[in-house]
Amino acid sequence: MPETVLRIFMAMLLCAVLLGGHACTGIRQAPIDVHYYTLEYDPPQPEENAPLPYVLRIDRFQASPLYDSNRIVFKVKPFKRDEYVYHKWRAQPGDLASFFLMRDFEECALFKAALYEDSVLPCTHIVTGVVEEFYQEVDGKSAEAVLTVVITLIDNHEQNSGDAALMQKRYHVRQAVADMEIPSFAGAMSAAMQHLSAAVIRDVYARLSQ
């Protein structure tokens, strides 16, 4: 009899160790509900200018190590960054920024064509970028979306010379968030990207018009 009891006890102990005690009792943890967000805005309206005969290729942007993931990052104190556990971007900031900029270049119709980096079609110029900042800054009961991107315009026919880089500029946008909710932050970051995109298109057009 004691040997039988010991066997039952050891079986129960093994079940608890291997399965955390949940499967043996029929109890399961509820799945974690993670919310995913993306940018969403109308392409900026371009100025009335004649289209230029250039084909642009927008390469996937690099990103600072702080923001090179799909985690939504926020800042409350200087030198400190945290992230939300159950709120994430659908894609990484480098992918989001470069894709929407390509879409906006295409929609503006100020150039012959706008291509993404995996296109096999030839291009005359390349637009590269680095996302330096992509986060929510919280100050008490208010917040801002902070977006900073460095854009470089390259002449594809001069890549092996010192004249390849035609323009390099740092774009910094801060957009107020309506409230402390994450959807409002995603909306503010979308507005920031819309403003940044319009400025990039305007500057690239001005540089290639020279």
List its traits.
30% helix; 210 residues; elongated; 9-stranded mixed beta sheet; alpha/beta
Descriptive account of the structure:
Strands 1, 2, 3, 4, 5, 6, 7, 8 and 9 form a 9-stranded mixed β-sheet that branches. It is built from 3 helices and 9 strands; from the N terminus they run αβββββαββββα. 27% of the residues are buried. Mean pLDDT is 89; it is low at 21-25. With 210 residues, it is of the alpha/beta class. It has helices at residues 2-19, 93-108, 182-209, and strands at residues 35-37, 52-58, 62-63, 71-75, 82-89, 111-116, 125-139, 142-155, 165-176.
Strand and helix map with partners:
Elements: H1 2-19, E1 35-37, E2 52-58, E3 62-63, E4 71-75, E5 82-89, H2 93-108, E6 111-116, E7 125-139, E8 142-155, E9 165-176, H3 182-209
Parallel strand pairs: 1-5, 2-6, 2-7, 3-7, 4-7
Antiparallel strand pairs: 4-5, 7-8, 8-9
